[in-house]
User: Which sequence fits this backbone?
């Protein structure tokens, strides 16, 4: 189900090469922040580049290999903008998830109700997926595919060109809503299958390792057996991974893994949503292969912003911790790399430091 296609690596062929100091003596990856004091730089200076240095591999190929060559659970924090993605990269997560709910909230200030469309989603995913060509692969939300089969295919093509490693495609009606809200409606089986066929055909045409994740939201209205039927058919139509949205219980989640084995399943963890909280360890034991935490960044960001703005409103101060200097925040966003680009090019912008 998960063969590795031969694919031209996505990323920059030029001077951006991975600093070998990230690899320890026993060949294990050393977290970037341990090496570079804040995950500042993953790139070698031009002067240290030689022929044998590692080239970037596409996120799609990386993700497919994680699924086909290991038994690990791929843990993906849900990121929604540049800073949350940079933070996940700083902490050396193996993969990331771009949440549609978070993209809609942060870019449009709107709820997760089919308001963000393909161009907003693609643009956000493109930015996040390309922050670090050597970084973690990005799984993205592709909702309903934003139309019929033609749009589902177009979405896959655009996501692949943007460097997205994989995405989930669901069976809700086009006027969809967050999977953890009541009142969801799904399209008939054949309409869903046409979306999946179109998405799979697009990935084959693009000769990409893009990981197609079939999601069903049918549990609420049609029940568990219908979900298993839909996912089995999606698998047979070429989907690489399954996602049953909104489990009612831990037992049901474990049962779905068994019923669809050995096909890999993704678990969407939305704390305080429709499903019980399942820990990474529990998901691992159940046999899930990917776990996304959709609200991992969005919910705490809202809380922190609100607390800070309340302080500003009531006390007239912001109260930023002393170590959170502007330089520190810019470092998270690749300041050192930007500076090295200028210096290597003979620029003078940083002759007097920053
Ligand atoms: C996974 C999801 O599609 C997302 O956008 O992150 C949402 C998350 C949410 O709104 O709770 C979903 O589960 O539908």
Assistant:
């Amino acid at each position: 189900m998960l063969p590795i296609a031969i694919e031209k690596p996505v990323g920059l062929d030029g001077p951006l090469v991975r600093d070998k100091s990230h690899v320890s003596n026993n060949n294990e990856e050393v977290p970037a922040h341990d090496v570079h004091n804040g995950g500042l730089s993953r790139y070698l200076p031009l002067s240290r580049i030689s022929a044998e240095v590692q080239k970037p591999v596409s996120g799609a190929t990386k993700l497919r290999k994680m699924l086909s060559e290991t038994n690990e659970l791929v843990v993906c924090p849900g990121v929604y903008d540049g800073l949350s993605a940079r933070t996940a990269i700083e902490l050396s997560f193996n993969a990331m998830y771009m949440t549609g709910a978070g993209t809609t909230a942060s870019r449009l200030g709107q709820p997760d109700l089919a308001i963000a469309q393909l161009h907003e989603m693609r643009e956000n995913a493109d930015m996040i997926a390309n922050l670090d060509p050597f970084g973690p692969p990005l799984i993205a939300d592709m909702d309903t595919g934003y139309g019929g089969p033609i749009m589902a295919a177009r979405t896959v093509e655009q996501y692949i060109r943007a460097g997205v490693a994989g995405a989930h495609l669901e069976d809700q009606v086009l006027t969809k809503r967050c999977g953890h809200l009541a009142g969801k409606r799904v399209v008939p089986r054949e309409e869903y299958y046409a979306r999946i066929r179109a998405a799979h055909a697009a990935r084959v045409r693009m000769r990409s390792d893009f990981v197609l994740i079939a999601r069903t939201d049918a549990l609420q209205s049609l029940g568990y057996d219908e979900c298993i039927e839909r996912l089995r058919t999606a698998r047979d139509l070429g989907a690489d991974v399954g996602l049953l949205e909104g489990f009612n219980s831990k037992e049901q989640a474990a049962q779905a893994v068994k019923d669809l084995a050995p096909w890999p399943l993704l678990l969407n963890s939305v704390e305080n949503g429709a499903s019980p909280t399942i820990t990474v360890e529990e998901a691992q034991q159940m046999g899930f292969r990917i776990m996304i935490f959709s609200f991992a960044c969005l919910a705490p960001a809202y809380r922190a912003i609100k607390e800070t703005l309340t302080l500003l409103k009531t006390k007239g101060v912001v109260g930023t911790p002393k170590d959170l200097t502007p330089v520190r925040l810019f470092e998270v966003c690749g300041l050192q790399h930007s500076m090295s680009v200028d210096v290597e090019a003979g620029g003078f912008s940083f002759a007097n430091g920053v």
Notes: DSSP finds 14 helices and eight strands in the chain.
